[in-house]
Amino acid sequence: MSLSNGRPYLAIPGPSVMPEEVLRAMHRSSPNIYEGELVELTRSLVPDLKAVARTEGQVAIYISNGHGAWEAALANVVAPGETVLVPSTGRFGHGWADMAVGLGAEVEMIDFGRATPVDPDRVEAALRADTQGRIKAVLATHVDTSSSVRNDIAAIRKAIDAAGHPALLMSDNIASLACDRFEMDAWGVDVMVAASQKGLMVPPGLSFVFFNDKAAEVRKAMPRVSRYWDWAPRGNPEFYYQHFGGTAPTHHLYGLRVALDMIKDEGLENVWARHERLARAIWAACDVWGQGNGALALNIADPAHRSHAVTAARLGLPWGKHLRHWTEHSAGVTLGIGLGMSEPDDPKGEGFFRFGHMGHVNAHMVLGLIGVVEAGLDAIGAPHTKGGVTAAAEIIAGAPVTRLLAPAAEA
Ligand SMILES: *Cc1c(COP(=O)(O)O)cnc(C)c1O
């Protein structure tokens, strides 16, 4: 017997759970791609995307996943032979840096490891040391999806300004957009990349590059930009096909329209607050499971540096692997794998797992997720302290945040 029949729950950090409303909007025949409804709908997306990014800048939409957005952003502002500075946490900074290498750029990497955020002072020092002004852009990751660290993007802008350096600040918000608070203009971000399949609740296949006037000027001074990635016609199209450099991603656009309506109806501040509360419920459960001789530990120790979209945890071998197997096959919940977490005695990082809690998630889903994990810890015999579900339910019920931050002090 298995208890997994019923609605499956993909609780990984992207693709995220898609709302029925989004799926229904996509379930339709193709529209005319030259005039009428689709053209109007596309036009309506632009201000709403900019509102989610908190920017007055422009947005270019691509038919691609997040890797495409990485390449698109770089292709517009970094020429072969130019240098980018990459303060990297976890895996994803390395991924973006690798795209830069592929475009012929030089990469200066500061690796902060997989459990700590970017230290802005070291970014400032690296920029001060760049007396030749070689560094064209700083590539930062807002939320690193492998480690679940959340970096302080505004502090990185302050570091760039303190060094008096003209480099562009580019931010990867693929995991965090519409989950963790982000203010593109107020935080001084010049270029921001995002994708459809995480906080935006649409299937993988659309990506977004937001850019301000400063970045647009840098683009204009480029010797050349690849036609397909060029953000200028996409951001400001003379003809409809230029929005997408060809045929529009028709059905994704219908889905995105509904997803942006849902975010607008809830209110972006409320969306962020929901993600924060649900994340705290997961952390509270993990804190309890890890008490005593419990094997579970959150990857990011300081709650102030944790993402509200994804949570990485270490359970050790063989438990991490067994837990994921049990929740999927016995309970219908798929947890995320450990990514970039290999250790000498765990080369595949299978002692780690991740909770994805981005986008269309609510209290009953997260409590179900936590209940299944607690049952799973019991079923596989992993050392843990019981009571995670109760602790999470208290957070959901509105318990003061301090209870979560200091569970030991409660006892
Ligand atoms: C998911 C993700 C990516 C990669 O996106 P793909 O759609 O898989 O190409 C890049 N950066 C971050 C922070 C992500 O979460």
TrEMBL record:
Q: What is the required cofactor set for this protein?
A: pyridoxal 5'-phosphate
Q: Which GO terms describe its molecular function?
A: transaminase activity
Q: Which residues form a coiled coil?
A: none
UniProt key word Electron transport: no
Domain Aminotransferase class V as annotated: residue spans: 36-281
**Database matches in InterPro entries:** Aminotrans_V_dom (IPR000192), Aminotrans_V_PyrdxlP_BS (IPR020578), PyrdxlP-dep_Trfase (IPR015424), PyrdxlP-dep_Trfase_major (IPR015421), PyrdxlP-dep_Trfase_small (IPR015422), SP_NH2Trfase/AEP_transaminase (IPR024169)
Q: Which UniProt keywords apply?
A: Aminotransferase, Pyridoxal phosphate, Transferase
Query: What family does this belong to?
Result: Belongs to the class-V pyridoxal-phosphate-dependent aminotransferase family.
Under what name is this protein listed?
A: Aminotransferase class V-fold PLP-dependent enzyme
Organism lineage reads as: Bacteria, Pseudomonadati, Pseudomonadota, Alphaproteobacteria, Rhodobacterales
